Amino acid sequence: MVGERTITVVLADDHARVRAQVREALEAGGCVVAAEGASAEQAIELAVAHTPEVVLLDIHMPGNGIHAAQQIRQRVPDAAIVMLTQSADDDDLFDSLRAGATGYLLKSADPASLPDALRGVLAGEAAMPPSLVTRILNEFRRPTRRPFARSSAASKLSPREKEVMELLAQGLSTEEAGKQLFLSPTTIRVHVSTVLRKLQVKDRASAFKLLSEE
Fold first, then answer.
1. Residue 71 has what DSSP assignment?
2. For the domain that residue 174 is a member of, what is the CATH number?
3. Rounded distance between C-alpha atoms, residue 186 and residue 164, angstroms
4. Helices (H), 170-203
5. How many Cβ atoms sit within 10 Å of the Cβ of residue 39?
6. pLDDT tens for residues 27-82?
7. pTM value?
8. Same domain as 198, residue 175
């Protein structure tokens, strides 16, 4: 068990009863809850205002907790971000990690375990159920698609355009690619249109072929 020490926390969840239970567990474990919010916007504002050591976020609250994680990571880089959610969905897990979360805890766990889990995060430990750790390992074990070759076609694209086309080439939909890159589907389509114009091709398949050539 990680040695006990007082840590400051900003907590955001749109359910008041959940916040009360989490606050009680944290304070019983020696943590200080600097502020509480009920939306992503409030979470961002409170994190900036209080600069806590840990920000504990629900995912499916108004404004989206993953969006809050991304903004907090940029604006309060020293804060550790931990998601506390009911969702064991792979998309939520991986999107949270991409957004900068350093922990992913399920609300079904014993609230009394939270203080030590957060101290563990600050000590560099992984705050995550073993079942989710296994999913991450399995994801990294999958064969990865070779990035587009450094062809003359690829050199015409911006880094963001390459990212978009890579994801689409992997079979992701416009919506899925946008979710991974935190862009709207409309923005993804604009990038694709720009790529087609730069490469002087009429469709995505032709673009993928050009970009994959040595």
1. H
2. 1.10.10.10
3. 12
4. 174-181, 185-199
5. 18
6. 999 999 999 999 999 999 999 999 999 999 999 999 999 999 999 999 999 999 99
7. 0.64
8. yes
